[in-house]
Amino acid sequence: MSEAEMKPLKYTPSPEDGFSVKRRPDGGMHVCFENVSHRTLKQWREFALAHLEDSDRLTTNLYDLRKIEKLPEEAIQYAIEVNTDPSVRNIHLAVVVANEQVYKALQEIDALSSGYGVEMAIFMNLDEAEAWLNRPLTLVV
Predict the structure, then answer these.
(1) 91: closest CA among 54, 126, 127, 123?
(2) 22-67: per-residue pLDDT in tens?
(3) I need a labelling partner for 138 at 20 to 30 A (CA). Which of 3, 59, 69, 119 fits?
C-alpha cells in the first residue's frame, strides 16, 4: 500500500503522550507504549476510539508493550471498552509483551472482550507477532 493510499493518522505525536504511532506497510498501525500513566491511557483511549469511527476494512494493528511492566486496572478497563466497540470487527490485533504479568492481563482483556469481533493474539516475540499479522487473508477469514 502506498503512502497516498493510507488513511491519515488522527494523531499528532507528543513526547508527553507516553506512546507513539506509525502506519504499518499494510495500512494498519504500530503502537508502541513507553508508559501507562493516567495521561497516556487517556490520550490513547481518545486516539483509539477516533480511529474506530471510520473503520471500514480489515486492519492489522501491532501493539508493542515490551516496556510495560504492569497494566493498571484503568488500562484493562480502557482496553476492554475499545475492544468491545462494534467497529472492532475489522481488526486483527497482535500485542507483544515482555513479561508474564502483562501477558496474563492481556489474556483477561481478550477473554472479557471475546465475541465482539476483534481477533487478538499475544506474543513475547515481535517476529512471531508480525508473522501472525501477515498470515494470508484466507487463513484469517
Answers:
(1) 54
(2) 989 888 899 999 999 999 999 999 888 887 776 656 788 999 999 9
(3) 3
With CA atoms as reference, report the closest residue to 89 among 115, 51, 112, 63: 115
Q: Please, is 13 exposed, middle or buried when counting C-beta atoms within 10 Å of its C-beta (0-12, 13-18, 19+)?
A: exposed
The model's pTM:
0.87
Q: Which residue do the cell numbers 494498519 mark?
A: 28
Angle (nearest 5°) at CA 98 between 94 and 101: 95
- Distance CA(114)–CA(63), nearest Å, equals 18
The yes/no answer on whether domain 15-140 falls in CATH 3.40.50.1450 is no
Place of cell 499528532: 12
Task: List the beta bridge partners of residue 60.
Answer: 92
Angle formed by the axes of helices 73-83 and 100-113, nearest 10°: 40
Which residue is listed with cell 470487527?
89
Q: How far is CA 121 from the centre of its chain?
A: 10
